[in-house]
Design brief:
Number of helices: 8
Strand order of the largest sheet: 1-2-6-3-4-5
Radius of gyration: 25 Å
Oligomer: single chain
Number of strands: 21
Bound molecules: zinc ion
Distance between the termini: 48 Å
Amino acid sequence: MTWTRSFAQAALAAAVVAGLLPAIPAAQAAPDSSVAASADAPSKAATKLDIPLDVHLGYKPQKQCSPAAKPGAKALLKTLIKNFGGKSLGISRSCGAGGRSEHKEGRALDWARNVKYASQRRSANKALKWLTANNGEVARRLGVMYIIWNQRIWSTYYPEMGWRKMASRGSYTANHKDHVHISLSWDGAMQRTSWWTGKPVLSHPCTSKACPKGHVKYPQLTLTRPFAKKVAPEPFVPYPGPMPEISGSPIVGQILGVSIGNDKSWSPAWRLGKAVDCPKAAKCSYQWYRGKKKIRGATAATYRVRAADKGKCLNVEVTIRYKGKTGKKKAGETTYTIKGWVTKAPAPKLPKTAAVGDKLVARHDPWQPTTVKPKYQWLRDGKPIKGATAKAYVLKARDLNHKIAVRLTGSAKQIAAKSVTSNATKVGQKSATPTPPT
Ligand SMILES: [Zn+2]
């Protein structure tokens, strides 16, 4: 997607010029010296595959009261406003306000964009496309945890789920129809991620007083891999933290795993170090939960999400036995399980203008997963045309001076339905045979 890359370059270049971040030194950022030679085009390395992606720790909710705006949140908000317009609705929130929110840690931002206005909608959508393209590569490099806009949510920890509908939270504002909310990881909030530094975060940030040796690299995520080329990203595995955490996305048919963590606060084997898998010297057992109930027989380290889990949250309890001692800990719940998701739904491109008698054909690239075969409905000025449900449509006399578009709706077994609409064709009179010049 050329726009994405050129925009990303422009955004980073703009940020460099604005003094928001240091220009990436050529040597560390990209082996190809032509790439990062000047401040005008420094971002190929930051947006392409030359450097590995940052690790992501998963969903780390607000835990403390530290409302001062953090530098990464300020810089990202500035970049959005500079490149896409709009204004700030703030970063910090008083800790006395109700509810859990990363605003109370100064690592969430609200960007004023209102779905009511087409231009604002377009600019928000452009910005969010830039953040989430290539399975969220730029979002990962910025340390984005999740984004909420127009009652939909997108998160880096459920990469296969894309944008998903959010249950109504009551009001226009609570449903994020008048602003975009972005929550950052602590690394993103502190501007430690590769977007800002040219160096990916590969190890656990040193946050505890002891600053343990545990700056271990997590091999799967430190590899340079053709992330951008993948249709569906690999399931996300949280970097081991204090508690067990679930990896993978809660979609029927997907396999969930667990990053056990292995922390002093609960595990007798903590001296063996934090880990994704059970340490060899210890013995681990697992119990998966659907809501509060144990799932019978689901006692392996992995769990394949079942149809019965649809609409429910899943959890797992890890038990570690070591040197005669036992520790137990539950992971944080997943969000509600969905049936499945259309990962790619390209819309057809119709000609800008056509004439009565012309045949319009809804040509488009295949949808993903390919089991999804979209159905067609032709629209006149946005309203369905009776009986016009084939892939092609011949323009009739009554279409003259109207706008014709086609809506595609796709669904399949275990896949939630998705619709997209093409651009509109303006219908004119069949042009007369050109008169020869006289
Ligand atoms: Zn917010």
